[in-house]
Fold Diaminopimelate decarboxylase.
Amino acid sequence: MSTISLPARQADWARQAQEDPVLLGEIARAVGGPFHVLHPPRFAENLVAFTGALVAAGVSGQVYFGKKANRSACWAPECANAGAGVDVASAAELVGALAGGVRGEDVMVTGAAKSGDLVWLAARHRCVVAVDALDELDRVLAIGRSAGPVRILLRLVPDNALGSRFGLTPDEVTEALHRCADAGSAVRMEGFSFHLGGYEVAPRARMAAAALAQCLRAREFGLPAVSVSIGGGFAASYLEAEDWTRFTEEYRPSWFHNGQTFTHFYPYHQSPAGADMLAGVLASPTPGGATIAAEFARTGTELLLEPGRALLDQAGFTVFPVQGFKERGGYGIVTVAGLSMSVSEQWKGSEFLPDPVLWPADGPGEPVAACVGGSSCLEYDMLSWRKVPFSRPPGHGDLLVYPNTAGYQMDKNETRFHDLPLPARVVLDLPGAGWRIEGEGR
């Protein structure tokens, strides 16, 4: 087998947009280069699913959109309309959330060693700040004494990653509790947070139970400790199970241009994913035998979470105009307008594996396998090292659609290399209902 097909799962709105005989062509002519298509209603559906999982489990809580997953401005109003929050890590992101209608009290500020300006702004707007270190806590307390009380969570070092550079060790947690108790009205210590790598249910449930125990301990210090944030890392599933299984079992370097090899791939099929993964965490048993959900309800503790990719699942795709095609050693090489920096997985020593879709699908020529390169002078500027099967050779004037790229793919590493413009952002509320170009840098 010289190649393998990995057709992406796609939502109905995305298929309708791609099946429209003129829509993508009109947008391409208007923007004159690569572009991202964003669909806020799908984001809203994902948000409803997460909040529904909390309600179904009988748990009080709050969903915060992990803003770093996509910088577009169109998501914050969806959060505001749903009463959800936004997780930010810079003053610019905080201002953007406020401009999108999200109330300051619904903003969580995360990240390591936050600037004084960011903490001051957060205090002014009653945001909750996740404190990562003891020296940061001291700076937060100083700001709280002058600018008013700062709402905080104490971030815990993950129990499965004790070497992490983030979070407080058990001894540091004890010291932090003493400092918060002594700080009086300068701070409102509202609980604990953590962030885990990977996409498994069990480690999150275990850490949630541990953080809940820390809340009960903090209350003995006279601190409110009313909430636990279990962070993000909720899975998204891009491929059907059988396609992903076939790829992982039969994988070979010959499927890739120049025999390119990789040390890892994102798990492109996962189950449970999204809100179902949250439901799995809530249904997991604690050491005492009760479920996570039951323990949160029993202790009157709120469960907070910060999904990014999972809220953006099926909420956007990326389109690259084809600039050229050549034959090379039994397969084709497509060159597109744009750079691999706009498909972030390629810049993490890996590959974005779902098949790009050729638009329009019809045209002359026989089926062909082809890799896809960017328009820079860099040999390694490849959007798809894999030899993707196409129904015909892509040619100048065609478009390649990379599906489901809104979550972390479409803007994490983008750059103006060669002075090329960044891809335009096109907000499509409904196929057939018109579209608009979002302002650059938003």
Q: What stands out?
A: The chain has two domains: 12-39+315-438, 40-235+270-305.
